[in-house]
Structure formats: C-alpha cells, structure tokens
TrEMBL record:
<dbReference type="GO" id="GO:0070181">
    <property type="term" value="F:small ribosomal subunit rRNA binding"/>
</dbReference>
<feature type="compositionally biased region" description="Basic residues">
    <location>
        <begin position="7"/>
        <end position="22"/>
    </location>
</feature>
<comment type="similarity">
    <text>Belongs to the bacterial ribosomal protein bS20 family.</text>
</comment>
<dbReference type="GO" id="GO:0005829">
    <property type="term" value="C:cytosol"/>
</dbReference>
<feature type="region of interest" description="Disordered">
    <location>
        <begin position="1"/>
        <end position="25"/>
    </location>
</feature>
<dbReference type="GO" id="GO:0006412">
    <property type="term" value="P:translation"/>
</dbReference>
<dbReference type="GO" id="GO:0015935">
    <property type="term" value="C:small ribosomal subunit"/>
</dbReference>
<dbReference type="GO" id="GO:0003735">
    <property type="term" value="F:structural constituent of ribosome"/>
</dbReference>
<keyword id="KW-0689">Ribosomal protein</keyword>
<keyword id="KW-0687">Ribonucleoprotein</keyword>
<dbReference type="Pfam" id="PF01649">
    <property type="entry name" value="Ribosomal_S20p"/>
</dbReference>
<keyword id="KW-0699">rRNA-binding</keyword>
<protein>
    <recommendedName>
        <fullName>Small ribosomal subunit protein bS20</fullName>
    </recommendedName>
</protein>
<keyword id="KW-0694">RNA-binding</keyword>
<dbReference type="InterPro" id="IPR002583">
    <property type="entry name" value="Ribosomal_bS20"/>
</dbReference>
<dbReference type="InterPro" id="IPR036510">
    <property type="entry name" value="Ribosomal_bS20_sf"/>
</dbReference>
<comment type="function">
    <text>Binds directly to 16S ribosomal RNA.</text>
</comment>
Length: 87
C-alpha cells in the first residue's frame, strides 16, 4: 500500500486512467470487429462506411498513446486492403 500522500494520489490516478484507457481499447476492438463483420457480410458500401468511422477511432486512440502509432497504421492498412478486395 502507498505510504505517502503523493503515492496515494498516484494510485488513485492510476485506477482512473486504467478505467479510461480500458474503455478506449474496448471501443477500438469493437470498431475493428464491426468492419470485419461488414467485410464478412460482403457489403462493400457498408464496409467502406464503417471503415471510415473506424479509421477515426484508430487515429484517436493512437494519438492518446493507448496503442502505438505503427500498430494503428497496421490495423488501418489491413482493414483498407480487406475492404478494397471486396468485389
């Protein structure tokens, strides 16, 4: 357990930040799953629309250092390629 006031405060902040970051990570995963589901359904227009929204979410999460910028780029690249490959 934290012994100083500073350490207690840092522990409180850590819990709050962990909760916030977890929700952002969850939002990211859900958005990626939505694009994958649209791709599996075979609807290119819907997949492209969902991909646009997901790209925004991926960038937002990467800007906040929840995920690394290269990981964000990798997700966007693979999803874009999958959407583009739909006939």
């Amino acid at each position: 357990m934290a012994n100083s006031a500073q350490a207690r405060k840092r522990a409180r902040q850590s819990v709050t930040r962990n909760k916030h970051n977890s929700s952002l990570r969850s939002m990211l995963r859900t958005a990626i799953k939505r694009v994958r589901q649209a791709i599996d359904a075979g609807d290119k227009a819907a997949a492209a629309e969902v991909f646009q929204k997901t790209t925004s979410i991926i960038d937002r999460v990467a800007d906040k250092n929840i995920i690394h910028k290269n990981k964000a780029a990798r997700h966007k690249s693979r999803l874009a390629a999958a959407v583009k490959s739909l006939a």
